[in-house]
From TrEMBL:
Residues 503-523 are annotated as: Disordered. It comes from Streptomyces venezuelae (strain ATCC 10712 / CBS 650.69 / DSM 40230 / JCM 4526 / NBRC 13096 / PD 04745). Residues 507-522 have a biased composition (Low complexity). This is TraD/TraG TraM recognition site domain-containing protein. GO terms for cellular component: plasma membrane.
Length: 598
């Protein structure tokens, strides 16, 4: 507690302010009067150069320049000083307003108590570049490392020019609501700057990452597009064999697990029918893979449980225990068998669609996509599926999983890490890429040079797919967490608020009594970002939670605000128009349709 001696201090304060104001106005005016009068006297030859005396020049100019005329002194010591002082005051005011507005804009983006550049040093350019040299042997002796080769840009530290980057050993989870910049500020810039292969999953094409990045990625490698539900109406120029990794019971079980995850939520995957249906699929996938059959043959076996072909294949390849299990199900109680087989048929129903099945069955007219070759290239793989795509989204998840497993195997053969690293943008992961054990994969993908960025619309969306324990595990394993605007879950917002932490706030209180006025200063703690402030994060900003560092406020950098965006926008517009044209062409009746109608 500190007290003011009396109210007379207010008078001293007022006198001091008046004195300072007089100096602020009088000193410049007097200096201008002294300089202009000296120049006038020198030009007219009416006297010597007078030493610097601004007070006398303003108040008693006739004593300093007695030979000068009255009109001359009026101009040099009154008119000119007043005009120039006013001009200086206006210029100073404009500069102050400009500074205030700029500082105010920065303050809107920064919050007291948030991380400074020193707090997140490992995520800034110098540290990320040094780390990249140690992680990537190809860069060890490079004199200069381009930013794209050092790490993945996340944004700028709010209110500064410091770029914040993920390193090539980080794994990320981004929770951002629709239209909060998850595609424009995170997915697209990351894909455009990726130094190695890129995997993208999405449920949109026109005006999204697919169209924005297609031409740019074509310039660095081949672009593979898997579009079984014709979101982009892409021509089928590839096929992929989902049974290539199903020649072991574990591999077949993983493939069946993707069909299970695409069909039911995590809370329902443990019941009898779900597990039994998934087991039947795994056994039949294994048989088809061992006999090098297309995956569509499995649908024929599901339609006729009495068909002994899969049993014979399993026995011929020494999988007698699996054959016995399959035989037990087939010869079990009819009502149980029919229920199990019907469940399996529902999970794999998308394979009945010829247009979808064509993407995953052998054909000589198009190239086969091989994950093992892809992970050593600079190619791109765009996997597109609609929300709730059932079996179609299962194929998307299975393909993405196959690519990441191939990348892991290649990293082990290369000494532990991929160089260049592979970027996996799992946009709309909870809708179109439900990899059941993705939370477990997060614990080691970063150490293999495989950089996943899983983008979700909310924390609860992840809980629905992976369960509470699974989502918590992925959240904990992510070394970088990005939270954008639109967080409307009060529990999650409060959790984030607690993670951001508290800071000390100075509180000043003043009281007045008969003896005078007293002022006290105390400190109290309050949340740096309360839950309502997190919910109200404006578009273009995000929170960055990195392992072992304070939470930072970021200013996102959308691709359309970067250099070269005009060319990129034009390419995106062309790609979107091409999608529209292909869609219209499919809707128009062909000549054969007219012939049949006739």
């Amino acid at each position: 507690m500190r007290s003011a001696p009396s109210s007379s201090s207010d008078g001293y304060d007022l006198a001091l302010k008046v004195l300072l104001a007089a100096l602020a106005v009088g000193l410049p005016a007097g200096s201008i009067a002294w300089l202009s009068s000296n120049i006038a006297a020198w030009a007219a030859g009416t006297g010597p150069w007078v030493p610097y005396r601004p007070g006398d020049a303003l108040l008693r100019p006739e004593q300093l320049w007695p030979a000068a005329g009255e009109t001359s002194l009026l101009l040099t010591t009154r008119v000119i000083p007043v005009l120039l002082t006013l001009l200086l005051a206006v210029a100073a005011g404009l500069l102050w307003m400009r500074y205030k507005n700029r500082a105010g804009g920065s303050r809107k983006k920064t919050v007291a108590g948030m991380a400074t550049a020193r707090d997140i040093q490992p995520l800034l350019a110098k540290a990320v570049e040094a780390k990249a040299r140690s992680l990537r042997p190809s860069l060890k002796n490079a004199k200069h490392i381009a930013p794209r080769d050092a790490g993945i840009l996340v944004g700028n530290l709010a209110g500064t020019r410091h770029e914040v980057r993920m390193g090539f050993e980080d794994v990320a989870v981004a929770i951002m609501a629709p239209r909060s910049g998850k595609t424009t500020s995170l997915a697209i810039p990351s894909i455009l700057a990726a130094p190695g292969p890129v995997l993208l999953t999405s449920n949109k094409a026109a005006g999204d990452a697919y169209t924005a990045c297609f031409d740019a990625r074509c310039q660095v490698g081949r672009v593979w597009s898997m579009d079984p539900q014709q979101i982009a109406h892409a021509e089928r120029t590839m096929w992929w064999n989902p049974l290539a990794d199903a020649k072991t019971l574990d591999g077949a079980g993983r493939l069946a697990g993707h069909f299970l995850a695409a069909s039911v939520d995590a809370s329902q995957q443990g019941d009898f029918w779900s597990k039994a249906g998934s087991n039947i699929l795994a056994q039949l996938f294994l048989a088809a893979a061992l006999d090098e059959r297309p995956i569509t043959d499995v649908m024929g076996w599901l339609a006729f449980p009495a068909d002994r072909t899969p049993l014979d294949i399993l026995r011929d390849h020494k999988f007698t225990a699996v054959a016995s299990q399959l035989k037990g199900t087939v010869e079990g109680p009819p009502e149980t068998r029919d229920g199990i087989y019907e469940t399996a048929r529902q999970y794999a129903a998308a394979l009945l669609n010829q247009d979808i099945a064509a993407w995953v069955t052998p054909q000589s007219s198009v190239a086969e996509f091989r994950p093992a070759d892809f992970v050593t290239s600079t190619d791109s793989l765009f996997l597109l599926s609609k929300d709730g795509g059932g079996g179609a989204s299962a194929l998307i998840a299975a393909c993405a999983d196959s690519v990441m497993r191939a990348a892991t195997a290649q990293a082990e053969r290369a000494g532990g890490r991929l160089d260049p690293p592979m970027l996996a943008i799992l946009d709309e992961a909870a809708n179109v890429c439900k990899i059941s054990d993705l939370p477990d994969l997060y614990s080691h993908l970063g150490s293999r040079g495989i950089i996943p960025i899983t983008i979700l619309q909310s924390y609860r969306q992840g809980q629905k797919v992976w369960g509470d324990a699974g989502m918590d595990a992925m959240w904990s394993a992510a070394t970088v967490k990005i939270i954008g605007s639109g967080i409307d879950d009060p529990d999650f917002a409060d959790k984030l608020s607690r993670m951001v932490g508290d800071h000390d706030v100075e509180t000043t209180s003043t009281s007045t009594s008969e003896s005078g006025k007293s002022t006290s200063v105390s400190m109290r703690q309050e949340r740096i970002l309360p839950a309502d402030a997190i919910r109200a994060l404006h578009k273009g900003s995000a929170l960055c939670l990195a392992t072992g560092m304070r939470v930072a406020m970021l200013a996102l950098r959308p691709w359309y605000a970067e250099p070269g965006s005009d060319e990129l926008a034009a390419a995106s517009a062309r790609a979107s128009k091409a999608i529209t044209a292909r869609a219209i062409a499919k809707q128009q009746p062909s000549q054969s349709d007219f012939d049949q109608a006739a």
